[in-house]
């Protein structure tokens, strides 16, 4: 039976020093929190004038086969094996660094090469060191990186030749590479894509359900598999 006089209950609780807590609106608290912790504004300079101009040039060159992605974080494209003893140190080295343009296959969004648009700021000592590091990172990952100086006008034919030469000289390694089957009597193989010792797994679904294979522990960053014979 419901209490017909809720005021009596409040009086009784006060006698024992148990004053009911006032109801708090979570909606009000969330609103206040958003006002305090979300002081964000939309930037007007996502791309600089020079980057926008260059973007329009290369966008027209790529057609439907390739897609231009501007200002891509290195950590969105590259990864460090978690089995590396200096994993966090290497992750920190690419944290908060980006490449000006990443060129991907439109159908699969697989990266094909990257472009750095170098203006006068790249002549400063700290930028020179940063650029040398980024060059080594891309070289280690097998992803071509083309550096283009900022210009008032660009020769499309010359850019096309540079892009094709970069891709032909150092092709991107496949992240879905398959090799010859591995026998169970052999020790676990090392991933041919990233060099990490692989892990024996079993397919849980699909046409290969129940089949065993070696998979890279860096999945999904590395999707290389080796079937078990």
Commentary on this structure:
- The protein has helices spanning 6-15, 26-37, 49-62, 74-77, 87-94, 125-141, 156-169, and strands at residues 66-73, 98-105, 111-118, 145-149, 199-202, 212-215, 225-227.
- It folds into two domains: 49-169, Trna Endonuclease, Chain: A, domain 1 (3-Layer(aba) Sandwich); 173-229, no CATH class.
- With 229 residues, the protein is of the alpha+beta class.
- The N and C termini lie far apart (73 Å).
The CATH topology annotation of the largest domain reads as Trna Endonuclease, Chain: A, domain 1
CATH classification, class level of the largest domain: Alpha Beta
| Overall CATH architecture of the largest domain | 3-Layer(aba) Sandwich
The end-to-end span amounts to 73 Å
Radius of gyration: 28 Å
Measured as a percent range, the helix fraction is 25-40%
Count the E strands: 7
Order of helices and strands: HHHEHHEEHEHEEE
Total separate domains: 2
- Low confidence ranges: 171-178
Q: Shape from CA axes?
A: extended
- Largest sheet, if any? 4 strands, mixed
Structural class based on helices, strands and sheet pairing: alpha+beta
The helix count comes to 7
Strand content: 15-25%
Mean pLDDT: 81
Strand arrangement across the biggest beta sheet:
1-2-3-4
Write the layout of secondary structure elements.
Layout: H1 6-15, H2 26-37, H3 49-62, E1 66-73, H4 74-77, H5 87-94, E2 98-105, E3 111-118, H6 125-141, E4 145-149, H7 156-169, E5 199-202, E6 212-215, E7 225-227
Parallel strand pairs: 3-4
Antiparallel strand pairs: 1-2, 2-3, 5-6, 6-7
